[in-house]
Amino acid sequence: MAFIEVRDVSFGYTRDMILENVNMTVGDGEYIGIIGANGAGKSTLMKLILGELTPVSGEILIDGKPVSGQGTGHPEHFKEYTMLGYVPQVGFSRVANFPANVEEVVLANLYSQIGMFHLPRREHLQQVRDALALVGMTDYRKRLLSQLSGGQQQRVLIARALVNRPQLLLLDEPFTGIDEQAEGMLYELLHRLHTEEKLAILMISHDTERIARYTNRFYHIKHRSVHEDHSSVYCDDDWRERKVIKTKSHYYAKMRERENRNQE
Amino acid sequence: MLQYAFMQRAFIVGILLAVIIPLIGVVVVLKRLSMIGDALSHTSLAGVALGLILGINPLVGAVVTCTVAAFSIEFIRKRIPKYAEISIAIIMSVGIGLASVLSGFVKSAADFNSFLFGSIVAITDGELWLVVIVSVLVILAFVLFYKELMYISFDEKSARLAGVPVRRINFLVTLLTAVTVSVAARSVGALIVSSLMVIPVACAMQLAGSYKQTVIYSVVFAVLFTVAGLTLSYYLSLKPGGTIVLIGVAVLLPLLAVKRQ
Q: A68-72, B173-177, B245-249: which range is least confident on average?
């Protein structure tokens, strides 16, 4: 069964649609990529899945249940969503300078397990240690976040997402602002989590090559600039253009096509 | 010095405020809203002037206007989320404008001045109790919602996804900030509250190795500054509020210098 199912979802504002009739699925244990140019609507899709935005039409199911109370700004239903682990961008984020140590940052995400008015118990601290071990950051438990490199900070944020033992990890351009070598190691880490821990992963990226190499399947969001669309009347072809979704085999066929052309 | 009742009272009030102002300070500094204390304290002056004009207790006027101002800041902040500072600047302008216009109608300038620079050595019984009650509330809220406050300051979006009731906690913070600022304005002075909110936290951040340490050090620094400031001002006949803040700055500067090396 699909863990996440996006059914005919459209989203946009009165005159400009950002996503139209998007269909996609993430199955149990699948590693899925989403690629597309800047502004194509990748992050919008992520926000829809996280319940921060409400689709204009269509619906999104997570573990068979529709994402409820979408766009209300306080989706409290997320308490049940500890099966999702979300990893934000770290590059431009102010969280990097927050005066908290690694353990505190990871522990914070156990909020719904610890509960309001309760102190963390020993098993919670053990969960934090386990999560840090998975990303190879055990020795940095007491370090301030600001004392770590960008790649290490991203590992901590991945550990934070893993601490609830989710079934699916959601990553939104997670490696922006991280150097090339650290980025490669992080892709290896995700690959290991996917194969060894049987973790499903949904990752947004503009690194088409790596996405093609590591993921089981990926979706390509195509976009026409919003400005161009102002004047034109929508016709079916336009809609199809903007419609998401090409399969990995399609991408490889395209690549082979191009290589063949080059060789000729 | 402590044989005088007014100095005992000054120390009790000073130390209580030195505990709660930096607690609020940690949250607002880490949410990148450091200037909120400034905006609110200026607005509280408008409330003081209004109270004096209408013949009601100026402290009540201050609490009311401050609360209105704090929620206005939150309201504007949500509409311009990437530039949270703008909301503070707008409310600060409103506060200064109102305060200066309204102060023109205040007959007794002495009353108004006592709010500008505070009068920690002239605190009445009623005000003492008010500070005690507000302090208990702030400390309770900070202890009970320690996890929530940390996570919201760290990253509101992730906090929401983790199930933290972000809106309700933000509401609580806004309310407590407004009440703390207006009550503190009476004793340490409206112009000085925001320094007490920021300087101890800035000092703590130079030394702390965790969020918990940041909180504890901030309170320790603020209490030290207050005790030293009150003592010094007593023996040298200085204004207490200003002395406290200047001591804080005198500690912060060398800390920053050491950190840079």
A: A68-72
